[in-house]
Design a protein that fits this description.
The protein is mostly beta strands. The chain folds into two domains: 1-29, no CATH class; 31-143. Helix content is 12%, strand content 39%. The chain contains three helices and 13 strands; from the N terminus they run βββββαββαβββαβββ. The protein has helices spanning 42-46, 65-72, 105-109, and strands at 8-11, 17-21, 25-28, 32-33, 38-39, 49-51, 58-61, 79-85, 93-96, 101-103, 118-119, 126-135, 138-143. The strands form three sheets. The protein has a six-stranded mixed sheet. Strand 1 (8-11) and strand 2 form a beta hairpin. Residues 1-23 have low confidence and may be disordered.
């Protein structure tokens, strides 16, 4: 198979908008910065990539299922990946659930991996959470990387 070079905007099945460059690498079009304990807005989560550069421990509460479902135009079966980037931070980031957003049974059953809701700072400070919608207004989430 020949190498193909792509360019221009790309919209994935989860609504992520990015750009393909070179031979298939994807770069994020936008990110959201949350550098203090707060509830993330649905539009911040919808970017798919949240950064934190805080020197203090930070808790990011995910938006309600209704707000996030509306923003993502979610329906039962919608799957969305959210990346948390704490590589420039100096303390941990903890992810918390909101109304109609729950830690999945995999996260509950295996708290040391799928249920690990803290993201270290520094070089290992990257995490991926997968949100799976059971309806337009409710989701379960699991740490998947």
């Amino acid at each position: 198979m020949a190498n193909t070079t792509f360019s221009g905007p790309v919209i994935s099945t989860n609504g992520f908008v990015g750009n393909l460059a070179g031979s298939g690498s994807v770069t994020h079009a936008t990110t959201a910065a949350i550098n203090a304990t707060a509830t993330a807005t649905a539009s911040e989560v919808a970017t798919g990539w949240i950064t934190s550069t805080s020197a203090a421990a930070t808790t990011i509460t995910l938006p309600t299922g209704t707000l996030l479902g509306t923003q993502l135009r979610a329906v039962r079966g919608t799957v969305f990946d959210l990346y948390i980037d704490n590589t420039a931070g100096a303390n941990v980031v903890t992810i918390a659930a909101a109304t109609n957003g729950v830690l999945s049974s995999a996260g509950v059953d295996s708290a040391t991996s799928f249920g690990d809701l803290t993201v270290a700072s520094g070089a290992t400070g990257l995490a991926r959470f997968t949100l799976m919608f059971s309806s337009a207004t409710a989701y379960a989430f699991t740490r998947t990387a």
